[in-house]
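Fill in residues.
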């Protein structure tokens, strides 16, 4: 297979990021799976399927490490066509005033500064190329509130402001920057939320007009499309993929 494009996915070790990385690889991208836990086995599976992928260990909160990762991608593959800034963590579910400073700071470091770090170095490279597509993972909780998740939800809202502003800043240079806002998607993160609060699953199923939780692959379809030429006139958009939960 001729590799035409290079993609980076952060938080690619499991859940939404892994599904997105698999989708990029299947679509013909040489895909870098970046995660705080080096996703070697996940990459081995993709490669065994006949596609191209590589694992990279990164903490997206570490600015210098992100700078080095993008430099490594460019020196190894020559360019970066698509980037999905997806790594994220949740804070323990508690009312806002009970969230500790440490929990707040780590959430901001990964969920907000992590996206900031990745965008900055991706954009610097894409400016040199004159093209590129970036998708940031926000959340349905980037457009509405959610109980007990103040720090996390605040970061997901800020990601949308960051996405829209950067989209304006770089549109004329051929770079498109969008966000995907997943609803409740059945991933290890969502399973953990439900494990801590078991009545949530029934509540979600009742509240979601689609009558079910989403699949990571359904987010991957949206991310791939946002990075494709079919989305060439879409910029600064927050694409909600949530089975309709935020329209009620
Ligand atoms: N699952 C949902 O219902 C849902 C809904 C809305 C938004 N999201 C968002 O989607 C993204 C992925 O969520 P998920 O459910 O797949 O989560 P997950 O917990 O299942 O997977 C997250 C991945 O990110 C990695 N990661 C964590 N911290 C990192 C760091 N500092 N640097 C690099 N990698 C790191 C983890 O190792 C893991 O592989 C997150 O940004 C999350 O906030 C998820």
């Amino acid at each position: 297979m001729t590799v035409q494009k290079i993609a980076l996915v952060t938080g690619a070790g499991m859940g939404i990021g892994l599904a997105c990385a698999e989708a990029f690889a299947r679509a013909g991208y040489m895909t870098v799976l970046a995660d705080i836990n080096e996703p070697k086995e996940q990459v081995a599976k993709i490669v065994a399927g006949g596609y191209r992928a590589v694992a990279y260990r990164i903490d997206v909160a570490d600015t210098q490490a992100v700078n080095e990762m993008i430099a490594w991608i460019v020196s190894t593959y020559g360019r970066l066509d698509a980037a999905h800034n997806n790594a994220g963590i949740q804070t323990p579910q508690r009312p806002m005033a009970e969230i500790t400073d440490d929990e707040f700071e780590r959430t901001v470091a990964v969920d907000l500064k992590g996206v900031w770090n990745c965008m900055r170095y991706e954009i610097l490279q894409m400016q040199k190329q004159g093209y590129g597509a970036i998708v940031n993972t926000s959340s349905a909780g980037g457009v509405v509130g959610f109980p007990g998740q103040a720090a996390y939800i605040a970061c997901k809202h800020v990601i949308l402001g960051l996405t829209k502003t950067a989209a304006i800043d770089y549109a004329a240079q051929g770079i498109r920057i969008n966000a995907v806002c997943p609803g409740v998607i059945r991933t290890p993160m969502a399973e953990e939320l439900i494990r801590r609060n078991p009545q949530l699953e029934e509540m979600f199923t009742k509240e979601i007009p689609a009558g079910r939780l989403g699949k990571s692959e359904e987010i991957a379809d949206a991310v791939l499309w946002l990075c494709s030429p079919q989305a060439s006139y879409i910029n600064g958009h927050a694409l909600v993929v949530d089975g309709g939960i935020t329209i009620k």
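The mean pLDDT is 96.
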